[in-house]
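Hi W.,

Here's what went into the run:
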Amino acid sequence: MADQSPKAIINELLVEVFNQILSIEQQNLRERGVELSMNEVHVLEAIEKTDEPTMSTIAKRLRVTVGTLTTSVNRLVAKGYCERDGVKGDRRKVSVGLTDKAREVLKVHEQFHDEMIDAVIEDLHLEENHVLIDSLENLNSYFKTKY
Amino acid sequence: MADQSPKAIINELLVEVFNQILSIEQQNLRERGVELSMNEVHVLEAIEKTDEPTMSTIAKRLRVTVGTLTTSVNRLVAKGYCERDGVKGDRRKVSVGLTDKAREVLKVHEQFHDEMIDAVIEDLHLEENHVLIDSLENLNSYFKTKY
DNA sequence: AAAGAATATTTTGATATTCAAAACAAAAAA
DNA sequence: TTTTTTGTTTTGAATATCAAAATATTCTTT
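Here's what came out:
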């Protein structure tokens, strides 16, 4: 490959990493005995991280329609990873919670992320971390403002 | 949220960016009049970037089974984005090529990537790019060696 | 050369993922 | 008390995915 600008290098690396990461995360879960798809794990993560986890708020976080989320949650409930509960004060709303089984899966997945981040910041000097953080924040706020 | 380590911040930003980017790319394509899914675009990209684009080599790059790729290519052929061709010298193999229509879509998508990378680089001094590049390379080689 | 093994692809059958639009239920507004 | 809005589920349809079976072709072995 010919002489490349930093921009072209960054683009290529981003694309490559992106295209790999989902299937690698999936593979990692399999190896650790988790029988869920990455998609299902992402739903669990979203439930965990959403403040008042109703169908609407979770779907918004995941950027899917509520109907899509319904089918995911149906399956996760059937498999014993989620529970539905009415929200008192508004009987239209449905609150979704995690079971202990789900929390264990998330712990396993988090460990993978830990190792991944260690790999990312490997060889970087501590004072350079802020540069990486700034880069990621730029990327993040670019999306936030633009979409 | 409480006091966070650089590691925790990097993790959170990475996750957030990752979870956003696919749906944002999808949205961007829609806005620009492309009626393909991101998945279909990724297949086109893989075809473009694979040296000898037969079903096997493309599937390997995409990390899907060849059967899966068959259905994707069937649809892309039906929609006029791909063409199948025999490989001379080995009649088992099938070469997949892009049509002009596909190349236009890829150009549109590439433009989005360009803007995205510009946004990342924005505010960073040029000499600091190596930090982002090094980080991405670390991540990349972590996956390469580990999987 | 004929038989058997290996390789490349497609087909089949099943499950998961997704959306838009319709149906329902409850709350809020008029 | 109607009407409208909000929150969720259901329905119907397209995509995405895999494993295993079926085909076709090439390579290997005898």
